[in-house]
Amino acid sequence: MLIPLISVYSTCLSSLGPSFAVNLPFHSRLSLLSLLCLPHSTPPPIWNPLPDLLHPVSILSSSFMSYFRSYSIHKAHPVLGLLQNDGKRVRKDEPHKKCGTQETRLTELLVTVFLRGGPAMATGGKSSRSSIHRYTNRLINEKSPYLLQHAHNPVDWYPWGQEAFDKAKKENKLIFLSVGYSTCHWCHVMEQESFKNKEIGKILNDNFVCIKVDREERPDVDKVYMTFVQATSSGGGWPMSVWLTPDLKPFIGGTYFPPEDGIYQVGFRTVLLRIADQGFHRYSTDQRWHVPHFEKMLYDQGQLAVAYARAFQISGDEFFADVAADVLLYVSRDLSDRAGGFYSAEDADSYPTAKSKEKREGAFCVWTAEEIRRLLPEPVEGASERKTLADVFMHHYGVKEGGNVSPAKDPHKELRGQNVLIVQYSLELTAARFGLGLEQLKTMLAKSRERLCKARGHRPRPHLDTKMLASWNGLMISGFAQSGAILGKEEYVSRAGRAADFLRSHLFDASSGRLLRSCYRGKGSAVEQSAVPIQGFLEDYVFVIQALFDLYEASLNQSWLEWALQLQRKQDELFWDSKGFAYFSSEAGDSSLLLRLKDDQDGVEPSTNSVAVANLLRAACYSGNMEWVKKAGQILAAFSERLLKIPVALPEMARATVAFHRTLKQVVICGAPEGEDTKDLLRCVHSVFAPNKVLMLADGDSTGFLYHHLPFLSSLERKEGKATAYLCENFACSLPVTSSQELRKLLLL
């Protein structure tokens, strides 16, 4: 039986408050019924129903939850095969008929709005090289690279803030909210196609208050409205486009819109005119892609460095160590600020040559077969056939004469004839194919990559987002610290320490004990802050605290421990929910936010409460404060239903749950910091994958930080004057051991 979707509309409006539809002035009032005059077209052959497991943030206000739950009527998918039209049934592959009754037409509309969707991610677009700016808006006064990219649009952009909110209320205008980030390719596409368009800019300026948000600066704003978009469609992504009432309540949202109407796609111009004239229709792109995103994000590099270092720790395979080293080399070379911080990202788009007029996706990274043959012309000595370096390289990395990118994955035809390098064969297979020795092949490929890298250095570089975020810097510090400890690379640990010093100097207010969200590379490579600094969010605290614990274990510098525990106390003060337990993502008191959310899903970064559980357990082990263990348990209880029903949504919290129930082991090394016997035991600890542990050095200084917080350390002695290891848990310690072999056995128990 087809459930009349008019009830969805009623539920949505009632949940937004009784004054939502009644008190708005006529020219600003959203009337979905007026959408009945939208032109209909044949729906796509395959509809994308809302996934059964799509789950909005679990802890929301009850009024907003009733709004988000409106999608649940689709779970049985009764409308996929049949649509109601003037009391008759039509097949889904037949064209929509002209409008019938109001209820029927609204049903068709809401089927379209709720069932069409999918993420529009950063994979394609163009940009023009021009230094002449006909327009300048107020974003020119911002620090965010993303906002500055839109400072010369013919759109009267406002940053997120009271000035924009007051204007919307004073003029009774709806708000158009556009959220993205500076290295997002589809954000560039939408800017080039729509936000630089003078006519579209006029429509926006005449009918809306337009707000531009950098999602990396304001993750709190992004999360609130992305939750709405995901709950009312079958996906999300950036750029995110949301229309709000003057009191900041969302009523329509989407991702990327093309500028003009297509066969199955309503263009941005039409969307704006229909909303301005009380109407809307939505589409989104296919979520499958094979060509990689060419943008490089700092948070990916930090987490991948840790993953590959741990893979080496578990397997002993040097391949994983090499990948981790390559990642850290890239970050040190291309994403590092002179002052010690890490930049946010490198763009996907760049000019193919210095004379090019338009940017292309992946231009900095892709190669033609002709380029490779020209760069690698030498014959290969000892090969079974007469081959050149180019032949071997092209075989190994899947290079084709006509390019290896499928046209289906290149909608803007920017990668035609180009090759995205990918390891097509193992070293052993490539060596056998050309009759080469394994070491000879490794040397040959390394030499070839070096030559291509040097040639690539002459290409125009992609845009660099020089914003520096506390949270992402925390993830990268963990990458350097853990990799340094596992791989035995002191230079990595030193780089992590330098970045932590940067955070303390530029993203920490010692007077208040608070973290700041972001800072920026300014003129002359100086580090600058916004006129009104953005205060840190929960993610800034949890990732920085995690980084400081990792850095302590790698360096054994107790000052990092002290700062970590200081930040943990401040996090509790600012974000803890004493009634519902767990941490809110943002502070209380921001009237511009409709909701204080709690993440319930691991995404490109682990959810903040997942990381917070592990941090609390580590903090308790280093301080003896068992209240932090209690808090960890309360977080797990708050998310228990989610963990039981869909544990795959929270793998980091599932891991933390194991640590909570098994209790973290305290690995205590009693010894002189510079002693070789101490270093031998420390190397042993770092060589073993034992995630549910904390490491500490008892150096004999009874006045030190650890001895003050953990009095039991004074009872642990060095055996026969040698560096000695103890494994402690549940207030009891193992017998002392002095050899790395004995310690390894303990760690593997």
If you had to describe this structure to a student in words, what would you say it looks like?
This protein has 27 helices and 22 strands. Helices cover 42% and strands 11% of the residues. The strands form 7 sheets. The chain has a 5-stranded mixed beta sheet. The protein has a 4-stranded mixed beta sheet with strand order 20-19-21-22, sandwiched between helices. It has a 3-stranded antiparallel beta sheet with strand order 3-12-11. It is of the alpha+beta class and 749 residues long. The N and C termini lie far apart (58 Å). A hairpin with a 7-residue loop joins β11 and β12.
Summarize the SSE layout with pairings.
Elements: H1 6-15, H2 19-22, H3 62-68, E1 82-85, E2 88-91, H4 102-115, E3 127-128, H5 145-149, E4 157-159, H6 162-171, E5 174-180, H7 185-195, H8 198-207, E6 208-214, H9 219-231, E7 240-244, E8 250-254, H10 268-276, E9 296-297, H11 298-315, H12 318-334, E10 345-346, E11 349-350, E12 358-361, H13 369-375, H14 389-396, H15 427-434, H16 438-456, E13 464-465, E14 467-469, H17 470-487, H18 490-506, E15 508-509, E16 514-515, E17 518-521, E18 527-528, H19 538-555, H20 558-575, H21 608-623, H22 627-638, H23 640-645, H24 651-662, E19 665-670, H25 676-687, E20 693-698, H26 705-709, E21 724-729, E22 732-733, H27 740-747
Helix pairs in contact: 1-3, 8-10, 11-12, 11-17, 12-17, 13-14, 17-18, 17-19, 18-19, 19-20, 19-21, 20-21, 21-22, 21-24, 25-27
What is the global morphology? globular
Strands, count: 22
| Biggest sheet character | 5 strands, mixed
| Strand order, sheet with most strands | 4-6-5-7-8
Which ranges are low-confidence, i.e. pLDDT below 50, for 5 or more consecutive residues?
A: 1-127, 279-290
Give the class from helix and strand content and strand pairing.
alpha+beta
Roughly how much helix do the residues carry, as a percent range?
40-55%
How large a portion of the residues is in β-strands, by DSSP E? 5-15%
- The number of helical segments is 27
Structural Rg: 28 Å
Average pLDDT number = 81
Gap between N and C termini, in Å?
A: 58 Å
